[in-house]
Amino acid sequence: MANEIGGDMTEKQFDILIIGGGLVGTSFLCALEPIIKSHQLKVGLIESHDLDKPGDTPPSYDARASALSYGTRLIYEQLGIWKELSDDAMPILDIHVSDRGHFGQVHLNHNEEHVPALGYVIENFRLGKVLLRRLKAFRDQQLIKVLSPAEVTGIKPVPEARMAVEVVTGNDQSDSQGNSQGNSQGSYQNSYQNSYQADLIILADGGRSSLLDKLNISRKQFDYQQHALVANVSLDRPHAGIAYERFAGEGPMALLPLTGTEAGDYRCGLVWTLPNRQIDDYMALDEESFMERLQQLFGTRAGRFVRLGQRSSYPLSLNVAREQVRPGLVVLGNAAHVMHPVAGQGYNLAIRDAMALVSNISDSLAAGKSPGQLSQLLQYVEGQKRDQTMTLDFCDNLVKLFARKETGVILARNLGLTGLNVSRRLKTRFARKAMGL
């Protein structure tokens, strides 16, 4: 190591440097807090958006809803932030999985699994607001240094097993807490380039990370030739905390219960998977025509759809980084793996990865080793390999299985759903996996 852990460093040297202040990067930082304090670590975070400017937040802090597993709730309780989230998180009390027009279905219930909820649904901007508040508190306590807005243009190894990042900010001046006072729109007209070094860099800048290419880290990719259409919809009756996964038409439809509004709306988050060839047509439909088509394919088991929020869409693909660790580097979150949203497992897997990585770092520090030592980081990857592989394969196989239209395949999958539903042991195993336990 170039410096003793937590020891005297220059302003441009860190023990750990996080690239990306989105949901995963800030959750990782929250988990790291006890270690920062106990080992006097010097930690930095770089974010291209201006975290102090209202409305200029990372893309993951958007209006979409995320399904948090019960296991993720337990993690956030451990980190001391669940209390701030609980009012905005709608408990999932039941899950209904069905194959439209066929007999197979699975029903999961929280009482049968002896948990207060199978999971929770929260809008990303509400989750982001809590995490951002915690991030700013860490900065104000001078536990971390924040560079925002700042753009990383390159990463490279440097002598003594450290990594260096080249960072462009909007101005050559930063305040005492490390916040760039430059251009808040990320255009960096009066830009200034600087270099920072760290024993360990956490690359958590999202699924569209351009830094993986700069590092020559390739991805395993599969294009599903589908888009996810996302919107909030209102029902004519209470949703009773029921989440639906409906395999209908050309792709799965998920309906996730949300907290109500002051107007008393019974809201749900819709994630509708559609083939690329259909997405533009569905996005262009007027509200009445869209809800009529949605009702036709989903059915009336949840009630009648009476109101539609703003629609958005994004392409779906499987993307997995072929390297998640190098000396002094870890790829985390969507930068490491992006999966189909069919089972709502992507964010939960990323949070489990983050907790496992914090545990690995703690073990390294306890042994007097650098947190960026490759042999230690390889243990992190090996420890998470089974969880990652099972979760990625489950979502991928589920999409491909329900896309098949052969009579024999349809019969087999419906028999499988029925068998799962009547077997207490199998259903509990399935439920616990879905809950991240």
Layout of SSEs?
Elements: E1 13-19, H1 23-39, E2 43-46, E3 65-69, H2 70-78, H3 82-85, E4 90-92, E5 94-99, E6 105-109, E7 119-123, H4 124-140, E8 144-147, E9 150-158, E10 162-169, E11 192-203, H5 211-214, E12 219-235, E13 242-248, E14 251-257, E15 266-275, H6 276-284, H7 287-298, E16 305-308, E17 312-321, E18 325-326, E19 329-331, E20 337-338, H8 346-366, H9 374-403, H10 407-422, H11 424-434
Parallel strand pairs: 1-2, 1-11, 2-8, 5-13, 11-19
Antiparallel strand pairs: 3-7, 4-7, 5-6, 9-10, 10-11, 12-15, 12-16, 12-17, 13-14, 14-15, 17-20, 18-19
Care to describe what's here?
- With 437 residues, the chain is of the alpha+beta class.
- The protein folds into two domains: 219 residues, 3-Layer(bba) Sandwich (FAD/NAD(P)-binding domain), CATH 3.50.50; 154 residues, D-Amino Acid Oxidase, Chain A, domain 2 (2-Layer Sandwich), CATH 3.30.9.
- 34% of the residues lie in helices and 30% in strands.
- The chain contains eleven helices and 20 strands.
- Strands 5, 6, 12, 13, 14, 15, 16, 17 and 20 form a nine-stranded mixed β-sheet that branches.
- Strand 14 and strand 15 form a beta hairpin.
- Helix 1 runs parallel beside helix 4 and helix 1 runs parallel beside helix 8.
- The radius of gyration is 23 Å and the shape is globular.
- The protein starts with 12 loop residues before the first strand and ends with a helix.
- Pfam families: FAD_binding_3.
- It comes from Endozoicomonas gorgoniicola.
- It is an enzyme of class 1 (oxidoreductase).
